[in-house]
Structure formats: C-alpha cells, structure tokens
Amino acid sequence: FDDSFKNSLLNAKGILIVFSFNSKHSSNFTGFHLEKIYSFTNNNAEIIFGIEVDDNMDMDMVNYQIIITGL
Predict the structure, then answer these.
(1) Per-residue model confidence (pLDDT) at position 49
(2) How far apart are CA 47 and CA 33, in angstroms?
(3) pLDDT at residue number 71
(4) Is the dihedral of CA 20, 24, 29, 34 positive or negative?
C-alpha cells in the first residue's frame, strides 16, 4: 500500500471491503489481506467485509473494492 492509502485507512471511520473471486479459488487469502488492512486502521474504525463469488472470473484472479468513509 502506498502512503496516501495508509493515511486514508488510519483516518477512516468506516471501511467496506468486498473480495471477488472464482468459486474454485481458496478464500483463505482474505484473512491475510484483512489483517494487513486492520494493521493500518485506527481502533475506532468500523470495518465490514464481504465476499462475492464470480465463476466468470479467471481462477487465479482476485478483485477487491475498498470504500473508505469518514475521513
């Protein structure tokens, strides 16, 4: 993550994260990425995450969307 993104996470009051991937892809990677994001947030931020399974995606592809609010 670049410094601008880290600062946004640190100042966020709310964070919404959605991971998208093929159903044949393991969802274990989400924990790793969530831990990394949590490490850059303040303790007061509300973090909500979701998972979208999209079998039209390439099996090795992972897409994520992050919405940061309350800056």
Answers:
(1) 93
(2) 13
(3) 65
(4) positive
User: What predicted TM-score, i.e. pTM, was given to this entire model?
Assistant: 0.79
64 near 17, Cβ under 8 Å?
yes
Question: Where do the H-state alpha helices sit in the chain?
Answer: 3-11, 29-39
- Number of helices (H), then strands (E), belonging to the chain: the values are 2, 3
> Is there a contact between 15 and 69 (Cβ–Cβ < 8 Å)?
yes
Look at residue 20 and tell me whether its pLDDT is greater than 90: yes
For 66, the token pair is 């992050």
Q: What are the tokens at 35?
A: 């831990």
Q: What is the pLDDT of residue 46?
A: 94
As a whole number, the mean pLDDT across the chain is 90
Question: CA 25, 57, 9, 1 torsion: positive or negative?
Answer: positive
